[in-house]
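Worked problem 6 (solution included).
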Amino acid sequence: MSAHLHPVALLRPLSRPARPWGQALMLMLRAFRTRQALDELDDHILRDIGVTRLEARLESRRAPWDH
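Solution. The predicted structure is:
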């Protein structure tokens, strides 16, 4: 007798483990805050860290859940 697995069960090892909602919310808030801080840096500081103004602006506009 062969075991039949549901297609979703086959994908579980490849996906990230689920986080508690509070932890996920804190990660999203941290992503939002750090991206906003990056957008507020002066051009000379961005040059020091090797990031262009455009790269900083694009990063700051990413969705908080996109990490």
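Discussion: The chain has one domain: 20-67.
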